[in-house]
Amino acid sequence: MTSIRMTLAGVSSIAGVKSNDTLGSWFKRMLGALGLPLLGLAVFLFIWQAGAKQIDTSLGQFPGPTQVYEQSVALYAEHMSERERETAFYERQEQRNAERVAKDPNYVPKIRDYTGKPTFFDQIGTSLVTVLAGFAIAALIAIPLGICIGLNASLYAALNPIIQLFKPVSPLAWLPLVTMVVSAAYVTDDPMFAKSFLTSLFTVALCCLWPTLINTAVGVSAVSQDLQNVSKVLRLSWMTHVVKIVLPSSVPMIFTGLRLSLGIAWMVLIAAEMLAQNPGLGKFVWDEFQNGSSDSLGRIMVAVLVIGLIGFLLDRIMLLLQRRVSWDKNAITR
To answer: Is 83 within a domain?
Structure first.
C-alpha cells in the first residue's frame, strides 16, 4: 500500500513538472509573439511623442501620436459625411426622375454621377486598385519571360544587358515618357479608363517587373540537375517540364521576386501620384502639404502610417500565398 502511494505521488510530481513546463513554454511563446512587439511599439510611441514636442515647423508643432489619432478620427468623419451627401444626391435624383416619369411616361430617366471631392479612404482605394493592376501586369510579363531566360542561356545573354540597363531607372524618369505616350496613344471619345490611371499603372509596371524577372530567371536556372535528368528520362514535353519540374522548384525564388516587386510598386505609385498629381494617396499627401493648414502635418502623418501599414499587409498577403503554393516550407522567410 505504501509503495502504491509513493508511485502515485511520483506520477503526480512528474505531471506537475510537465504541466509547469508546458505553461512556462506557452508564456515564453506569448511573450515573444505579443509582449516584445508591444514593448517595441510602446518605446517607439514614447520616443515619437518626446521628439515631436521638440520640433516646431512653419505649420506648427510636429504632430505626436495624439494629434495623429485626432486627425484619423476627423478623416473618418469627413468620409462618412461625404458618403451621406452622396446618398442624398442620388436620392434626390431618383425622386426627381420619379416625378418626371409620373408626368411624362415616355421620359427616359438619367442618373448623373456624384462628383464630390474624394475622401482619404477613397484615395486609399484608388491607390490599391492602381498598384495591384500595375503589379499584375508586371508579373504577367516578368514570370513567363523569366522562365524563358532561365531555361535558355543564349536568351539570357542577349537580354541581360537590357535588363541591367533599365533596372535602375527611377520612376521619376519614366513618368514623363509614360505620360506623353499615354496621351498620344490613348485617344478616344468614350474612355474606359482615365489617363491618370493608365499613367500610374504603366509607371508602376515598368519599375516593379525587374525583381520578379531576375529572381524567376535565377530560380529556373538553379533547378537541380537530377530533376532535369528525370525530365529527360521521362521525355516530358517543354510545357510539361515547365509545369511539373521548373515551376515547383523555383516557386520560392519567384515569390521572393514578387514580394520585392510589390514593395517597389507601392513606393513607386506614391511617388508617381505625388509628382503627376494623379488621384491616390500620393496626391492626398501633396495636397495637404500645399494646403498649409494647422491640421496638414497631422493628416500627412496619418497618410504616412497608412502607407506603411498597407505595404506591410501586402507583403504579409504575399507571404501567406507563398506558404499556400510552395512545397518547400523551410525556404519561406519571415
So the answer is: yes
Q: Based on the domain organization, do 97 and 181 belong to the same domain? A: no
Mean pLDDT of 64-82: 91
pLDDT class for 7, splitting at 50, 70, 90?
A: very low
d(CA 163, CA 179): 22
Helix (H) or strand (E) holding 56: strand 56-57
**Residue length of the chain:** 334
CA 163, 166, 169, 172 torsion-angle sign = negative
Yes or no: say if 83 and 77 are a contact pair by the CB < 8 Å rule. Answer: no
Look up the domain containing 80 and give its range.
63-103
Any domain includes 27: no
Cell of 229: 535528368
Residue among 224, 225, 213 nearest 150 (CA): 213
Q: Contact, 148 vs 248, CB < 8 A?
A: no
> Any idea which residue has 515647423 for its cell?
57
Number of domains in the chain: 2
**Domain identity same for 155 and 89:** no
Pair 200, 269: CB distance under 8 Å: yes
Question: pLDDT of 51-69, one tens digit each?
Answer: 888 888 777 778 888 888 9
Nearest C-alpha neighbor of 185 from the set 200, 196, 173, 195: 195
Q: Determine contact, residues 268/209, Cβ cutoff 8 Å.
A: no
Confidence of residue 222 (pLDDT cuts 50, 70, 90): confident
Q: Are residues 163 and 75 in the same domain?
A: no
Question: Which amino acid does the sequence have at 166?
Answer: F
Question: Mind listing the pLDDT tens digit for each residue in 228-264?
Answer: 777 777 787 888 877 788 888 888 889 989 999 999 9
- What is the pTM for the complete model shown? 0.82
CA atoms 83, 87, 90, 96: torsion sign: negative
Q: Is 270:307 a contact under the CB 8 Å cutoff? A: yes
Among residues 209, 207, 208, 184, the alpha carbon closest in space to that of 195 is found at 184
Q: Give burial (CB, 10 Å; 0-12/13-18/19+) of 310.
A: middle
